[in-house]
Structure formats: C-alpha cells, structure tokens
Amino acid sequence: MEETEIIIEMRSSREWGPFVVRGIAALLVGIVVLLWTGLTLEILMYLFGAMALIYGVMLVVFGSTQPVGRTSTTLAMLLGVLSAILGIAAIVWPWLMAAALVTLLAALSIVIGLSDIALAIFSVEGTGNRLLLGISGALSVVIGGIFMAFPIFGGLVFVALYLGVFAIAYGIISIITGISLRGEKTRA
Predict the structure, then answer these.
(1) Which domain holds residue 93?
(2) Residues 3-23: pLDDT tens digits?
(3) pTM of the entire structure?
C-alpha cells in the first residue's frame, strides 16, 4: 500500500495585514454599492461601453491590417464596427443599455426556467429531484418575468445583490481570516 504525504504550508502570522486591508476595502465597496446602487449601475455601463468601444476599435484595426479578401478580415471588421456602436450606445445611453442587457438576461432566465420545468415533468428519474428541478425552474421563470417587466429594477437588484452583498461577504471573510492569522503563533 502506498502512503501519500500531504504538506500543509503554514502561513506566517505576520501576513495578517493584507487580508484585513483587502477585507476593509471590499466591505467599503460593498456598502457604497448598496447605498448608491443606481450610480454603480451607471458606472458599470460606462465601463462596459468603454470596453466594447476599445474592443471594437482593436478589431477594426486588426481587420484593416490583414490581407484583403480573407473571410476573417471582413468578419473582424464587421464585429469591430458592431462592438464600437454598442460601446458608444452604452456610453451615451447607459440606462437604456442596462435595461436592454437585463431584458436579455430575463429572457434567458425564462427560457432556462421553462426547460427546467419541462425536464422535471418529463424526466423518468427520482421524484425528489424532479420536484426541486420544477421549483427552481418556476422560480427562474418568475424572476425572469419580473425583471422583463421592470428591467431597470432588475438591473439595480443584480448590482446590489451580486456586487454589493458579495463584496460585503468577501470583506467580512477576509477580515476574519486576517484576524485569525494574527492570532496564530508562527512555528519555526
């Protein structure tokens, strides 16, 4: 029989500071996101627009430096122009783009929910899993319907829940990790 040796690297108790600083920063970001969710969503749309615009320009430049007549050249330039237009639209109309993106995600949520419900109904596997799959599918359809009806509300909820709550939870865990590292004695 072969033995496996597991080596656990001990962290130095002097390394607690970065964990606490990172945790405090994440906690502050999470609180700011929850307090100013609308502003955060608008800033995210500006960043998304800038990223799409830069990507579009890069694709157009790439396409213009390739030999004429190649299919990838035409496709790159077309995608570059479309990406640049999308980026400009996100910068000029951030709330409209946020609503459009949330509507797209809501439609996807509804389709996935309906497929989960269909799978739960027509599946021949265990009934307990089918019930849970049906419930999760119904929840996905309801959330998708709400967000499709109120896309700006959906965008604000996405930002608050996913960014704000995640950042706060991450910050708390990092602070606890740092404090627990500080309390440990270093072994030589």
Answers:
(1) 15-181
(2) 666 655 555 556 778 888 888
(3) 0.66
